[in-house]
Structures are given as structure tokens and as C-alpha cells.
Amino acid sequence: MRGRNILFGLSGSIAAFKAAGWVHSLVKEDARVNVVMTRSATRFITPLTLGALSGNQVFTDMFSEGEGEPMAHISLPREADVVLIAPATAQTIARLAHGLADDLLSTAVLAATVPVVICPAMNSNMLAHPATCRNIATLRQLGYQVVDPDSGLLACGDEGAGRLPEWDRVRETLLALFSDDDLAGEKVLITAGPTREALDPARYLTNRSSGKMGYALARTARRRGADVVLVSGPVQLDPPPDVELITVETAEEMLGAVLEQAADSSVIIKAAAVADFRPVNNHSHKIKKAEAGSQLELVPNRDILAELGNNRQDNQVLVGFAAESRNHEAEGQRKLRSKNVDLIVVNDILGEDTGFDVDTNQVTLISRDAVQQLELMSKEETANGILDRVVGLLPGE
Q1: Is residue 198 part of a domain?
Q2: Pick the catalytic residue: 133, 156, 280, 299?
Q3: Is residue 182 in some structural domain?
Q4: Where are the alpha helices (DSSP H) in the chain?
Q5: One domain for residues 170 and 193
Q6: Fewer CB within 10 Å: N-end or C-end of the chain?
Q7: Which among 177, 199, 231 is the end of a domain?
Q8: Is residue 173 part of a domain?
Q9: How far is CA 388 from CA 74, 157, 360, 367, 397, in A?
Q10: Containing domain of residue 338, as a range?
């Protein structure tokens, strides 16, 4: 969101308090936010609050002399990269569907030449009313992007659809608008997280992978237009919006899920940290300390990346990861050749900012004809850097 100009419109709904948090989140990501409120919105949350959160003047009235912007309905959308309306009430949706220009927000939308994202929030009966359904359909026909509301317990006490969508889903919608759709039409299969290899009902072998890199890749690939399937080991992360998530626990389960999806995937990125070994015996009851021996017998797991490399489809792009503590480039080159992949992503697991369970990464990208080291960046930015190379490896590029 850094450097993006967001024109944020609020209409009169109790959900306006959630939108205040969205404004704060945008500002934290270094976006510039200008807020326009309908008169009803000011009854639920004050312009003073939104002004403090956005750091900018809040606009409420087309004709107020104190607004300081005599043609705000023209200048605000002209300066914006996107118009976001949240919450969008039934009244505001009806205004926009009929092209009315009777307040500052509706007039600004008519003057906008940038994408408009609308997040409805209202009582479920109001949402299901034929008039509202017709108006929302009209907004889609006009080219506005409508983020469907969530379902659950509403402020009025009813249960059903009509809740303001969660910010994570709306954020992904905005970021997709700012991203190239250079992966449109591609099916991207991504693995993430660790695997767990059970020893008994209480203990297992695993590693320190958090899954953050794989999940960042899934998010960014989806923003760039891909159909994304994410095969994930056990992690403490929210599922990325609009991504097909397949959860597994063991290496064998991950292998099965990957092979099932691989045949019709044009890009496979194996970011998961799969356990190399599993215990020979998985005991059905907890092993007592007094009964445990001093040695643990292990058997190798099948190498998922090697199997993909040996059985890859024509024109399929295959990407592997190498988490290394030393000899990073040499190990990456070895893995590139031995696994028959197009790209190896090497990261230093001993670095404070590049190791496990952190939000940043600095990786080296090794292909057959080039070695490129990316800067230290967030994992989402790193994911975009990796996908830039993937796009260049696609047939016809």
C-alpha cells in the first residue's frame, strides 16, 4: 500500500467503527487516506476520529465553507488510486446504482476514473431484498467491484449475511487492483509450512517452519491473477482469501496432495519444509519415559521435489526452496541440478531477519543461467520478487 492514495467513503452503518480500524491499517502501511463521510455516517463515528486516524482533513459536506476544498468532489477522486466505500449501506448502494449525485460521496464516485470497491453492510433482510439485489447487480455491471459481505451475528441480533467483510479480504482486493495480472490463466500449486511425523499420540518430529513464506507466495500469486492451490502443513496462519487450501500433516499426506494437483498445474512452488525422516514406528499409546530407549529408528521420507522433477509436465515451471545455514550458493546449485528444477530459492536460516518465523526475508534466486540476490524485504515483497522470475520462465515469455 506504500504511496497509494485511497479515497475512503463511509456511509451510515454501525459497521463504521470497523472501517476506522481499516483506515488505521492503511496508514500503517504508508498509504495516504482521504476520508469522505455521509451525513448519516457522522452519527455513528465522528470526523474527528477519522481525521486523527488518517492524519488528513475529513470531508463531509459538498457545500461547507469550512471544508477548505471548494471542488472536493473533483479533486479527491482525481488524486486517488482507488475509491473504497465501507460500509456501504442500502441507501448508498441505491444512490450509486441510479447515478445520483446528491451528496459529496456519490458525486465523487461519479467523477472517479479509478477503480471503485464497494463493501456492503446491512441487515440480512435488507441485503436479500430484490431492490438491493438489483442495485448490487447494477453496480457490478457498471464496473464497480463489490466485495460480498460476510455472514454471522449482526448488530441487530439477527444471524445471516450482511456483516462488513473482514479487512484481510478487502486488503487483498485492493492489492490485486495494484498488481499486474501476469499470472492470469495459470494454475499455481504452492506448498507451505512444516510436516509432523508422529512418534506416539503426544510426540512428533517436525521443524521450525512457520509457513509465512509459502502463504505470502499464495497471496501474491492470487493477486496477480493465478488460480492458487495451497497445500499446507500445520501452521498458525489465517488462510489466504480466494485460495484453495488443502491441509495435511505428514510428508506422505503432502506428497499425495501434491501429486494429485500437479498434473494440471503450470507452476509448482515447493516452499514447504518437509521432514526428511519419520519414525519407523508410530506407537498407538504414549511411550513412557521408563520404557523409552536411547535411540530412535528413522526411515527416509520420499523426496517430493525430486519426484516432481522426475515426472514434470511439458512447459511446467518448477521452483524449489533450500533453507541453508552455510554454503548457500553451492547448495542451491547442487539442488537445482539434482532435482531437475527451473529455480531454487535459497535463504539463510541463521540470519536474524531471514530465519524462521520472521516477517522479512532475503533470498538468492538461482536458475540455470543466472544468480540473483534480492534485498532484505518483507516476505510479501520477497514473494513478488520470486514470482517476477517465475513469470519470466513461463513459456512464451
Answers
A1: yes
A2: 156
A3: no
A4: 16-28, 47-54, 72-79, 90-97, 104-111, 124-128, 130-141, 167-177, 212-223, 251-262, 304-310, 328-339, 379-393
A5: no
A6: C
A7: 177
A8: yes
A9: 36, 47, 18, 13, 11
A10: 187-393
Same domain, residue pair 207 and 172: no
Q: Rounded to an integer, what distance in angstroms lies between the CA atom of residue 96 and that of residue 106?
A: 6
156 counts as catalytic: yes
Contact 324, 346 (CB under 8 A): yes
Report the number of distinct structural domains present in the chain.
2
How many residues make up the chain in this entry?
A: 397
- The domain boundary residue, chosen from 177, 200, 228: 177
- How many Cβ atoms from other residues are within 10 Å of residue 11's Cβ? 29
Identify the sign of the CA torsion 53, 57, 63, 66. positive
The three cell numbers locating residue 358: 520472521
pLDDT in tens, the chain (397 residues): 889 999 999 999 999 999 999 999 999 999 999 999 999 999 999 999 999 999 999 999 877 655 556 677 888 988 999 999 999 999 999 999 999 999 999 999 999 999 999 999 999 999 999 999 999 999 999 999 999 998 887 777 788 888 999 999 999 999 999 998 999 999 999 999 999 999 888 889 898 889 999 999 999 999 999 999 999 999 999 999 999 999 999 999 999 999 999 999 999 999 999 999 998 888 888 888 777 777 888 999 999 999 999 988 888 999 999 877 777 788 888 888 889 999 999 988 777 777 777 888 889 999 988 899 999 999 999 999 999 999 999 987 6
Which set of grid coordinates corresponds to residue 393?
520462465
Rounded Cα–Cα distance for residues 153 and 142 (Å) = 31
CATH of the domain at 11: 3.40.50.1950
Q: Same domain, yes or no, for 210 and 170?
A: no
pTM check: above 0.85: yes
Q: What angle do CA 218, 4, 143 make, to 5 degrees?
A: 75
